[in-house]
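Researcher: Structure for this, please.
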Amino acid sequence: MEIRIASANDIDGWMVLVRSAVADFPGMDMAEHRKTVLDFMRRSEAVCAAESGKIAGGLLFSAEDGALCFLAVDPNFRRRHIAEKMLRFTLGFMNPERDVFVTTYREDAPEGAAARAFYKRIGFAEGRLYEEFGCPVQEFVLPHCKIPENAAK
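Model: Predicted structure, token format:
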């Protein structure tokens, strides 16, 4: 498995990945997402996990804002710690003096259970509650851009 910065050459494989995980992102506009991903790719703020020519995982981030903007792993590649590997790779591009933020579903939303467990397991702390794109979400915060070495896998 290769973890690397994604380029525009990866867009078609990225969109195959997104279609495989679209159930995790209700209301996603695929055409809009494609444009967004290409923008992140142009800024070198898109990370992918690639294996045998297939995009198994994707992560979009904003180094300037200290934000994780999108994270998905193909269901056929789950349980291989790909999300954690992409996240650790991404943190190398973030300011180590700043916290890293991500939003996900609130605790009462069953579709967010796996994401919430993942972020907690690797050191993110629950933060404020608010709405994003009309959906109730909760912010998770990773203090000083660091995943504890003993984070459970």
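Researcher: Any notable elements?
Model: The radius of gyration is 15 Å. The helical segments are 11-21, 30-42, 82-91, 113-121.
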